[in-house]
Amino acid sequence: MNFQQKLDQFLITPPSIPDLRGWKRFCIEFLFFGIKEARSCLFVGLFFLSIFIVPKSGIWILPRYDALLIIAITVQLWMVFTKLETWDELKAVMLFHIVGFALEVFKTSANIHSWSYPDFAYTKFLNVPLFSGFMYAAIGSYIIQAWRLLDVKIYHHPPYIFSVIISLLIYINFFTHHFLGDYRWYIAATVVGLYARTTVIFTPYDRERKMPLLLAFILIGFFIWLAENISTFFGIWKYPNQITSWSMVHTGKWSSWALLVIMTFTITVFLKHIKKTVYVPK
Question: How many angstroms separate the CA atoms of 221 and 204, rounded?
């Protein structure tokens, strides 16, 4: 058993601390929650660390986007071979990659041009660097890892058919709002109705805690929005208003990311070992 596996085992079954109450309990639970969150963000952290480290000019003769692709693949394979991630989880992550890459191709097309990848790369396909799909895969990787480490359970999840339909509508709206109008807020209102009673149960240390699932979607979306600001600051991609100089990504993107998290969450729910911990009232 390697260090990472030992750490996971320690986090999942931590040693008991007697007479733990009050502010001491709060500090211990907060500490374990932070460590579990950091561990869940392992792929995300290493991927974005590479964004900071790899210079704009690339590494030797390797352009920056190509270097980022190699790093992302290497980290994913390392996580599988060290058993930090299973092959089934890797398949799910690759599905997120494909879904995200398809969206990237559309959004960066000449007719849409929502954003662009300005640098040259050998591994660009339809003007989109192949590493870009890993940014979406990173969201899926985080959800999968956090679900296991925090022993997540979902109560009062809406019927699966409804969650699938709303996820499809979210994804479709990312494409069609350029032609048919943006129905994002109507979809968001439907999401609020569907998940109003849904609660996420998680275990930071040794006791179960709970929070509204909608709040979890909003918080994850916020942190992705922060990561997007960092990425555009380093010029990984640019929005039209950032071509001449960097400016903060519009806060409206926060809602887009929160909706995308819902879609990613729905895909994750259908993983066999996770679906068992989701309670759908009859």
Answer: 21
Which parts of 57-212 fold into alpha helices (H)? Answer: 64-81, 87-107, 133-149, 160-180, 184-195
List Cβ neighbours of 223 (8 Å cut-off, separation of 6 or more): none
pLDDT, tens digit, 9 for 90 and up, residues 48-99: 888 888 888 888 888 999 999 999 999 988 888 888 887 877 887 888 888 8
Rounded Cα distance between 270 and 151, Å, is: 16
Three-state DSSP state, 78: helix
Q: Residue 211: in which H helix or E strand, if any?
A: strand 209-212
Q: What is the DSSP code string of 241-265?
A: GGSSS--PPPTHHHHHHHHHHHHHH
User: pLDDT per residue over 21-43, tens digit each?
Assistant: 888 889 999 999 999 999 888 88
Q: Which of 214, 207, 218, 221 is nearest to 156 (CA)?
A: 214
Q: What is the pTM of this model?
A: 0.84
